[in-house]
Amino acid sequence: MLRAVVLSLLVLGAAPCLARELPELTPLWLQQEGWISACDNRRDCQLLYAPNIAFAEQVNHLTLLIRSQAGPEGQLQLQLEHQGVPFEPAALRLDGQPLEPGLLAALVQEPEAPDSTREQQYYRVDDQALARQWLARLRTAQVLELPGEEPAQVLLKGLPDLLQRVDQVQQRLGTVSALAAPGEQRASAVPRVQAAKALRPYPGVTPLSARERSGLRAAVQKTLPPPKSAEDDDYVMPPRIELYPLTAQHALVVEFSDCGAYICLFDISSRSRTAPYALQPLQMQALPDGSVDHAGGLNYYPETGELSSFLMGRGMGDCGEMASWHFDGLAFQLTDYRRMPNCSGLGYDNWPVLWSAEAPKRP
User: Fold this and answer.
1) The pTM is what?
2) 28-189 has which CATH code?
């Protein structure tokens, strides 16, 4: 797994206010001026500037990630990563000018992981007053740059508009905690986000018997077209069938087809565990708009009730989509969905999140 970026600027809100309903503005996904803006169902938001990196390209890139948690006590976090030949922070330029000594002194470099195979540097800022100064300087600038023959840049032109959109989603406009234009109202004026409804725990299930597996496989294979000869021009590999116990009465069936190096098409369904193994309704929470469905890879873990899918944009896995669901005995509830359209070398821990929910642990 690729390491997370680390330039962390944490800003706490003030005293809480009474919880109240927020308008339905999420999940939010925007792409403009080289930036990605995403807010999940909890109204936690991320702004990410990350360049596409060709597989064999000489690396010299800067990535900037801004996270803002919802609510009056929500935290603000900025992260900066550099990929390329190591540099000194004093080399950074904002609109062609050196950064203030106080801001540079606040940068703390994270050590490289011992098993890292890439030239990456990570920085964080811990001082809260300097954190606000960093954001204010970035907000009014045009470009953060590491000069060189091929300079690494973060273009900041579209940042103020995206920050204002986050303020709108989180209802920070006019408060001291606003990202785009801090106002005079206390942070306590920002409404709390009501706690999400708790998901039901996974009840567990007994494994499929050999007889059940045999009957299910035969029933699924009857629905498939006859296999083609390998000599046929339109030959494709026959589908791969995976069977899992779902409930005491139903099984989960996954059919993979048209598989490439790391991408398949797949279909997921439910069938009775007894003859004639008929199809049964399968309740599954849909992915947010704009996602790619029924493509990539899929894994189910009947020991925990977790279903996960992944779609890799390329083999190294630094772009694509990832999702997880929790089976509560009746339906699959979405617990995590994240998307990264740019192949930028970022691990999935830093991909923009559009859905997040906590799956209960089994007793």
Assistant:
1) 0.86
2) 2.60.40
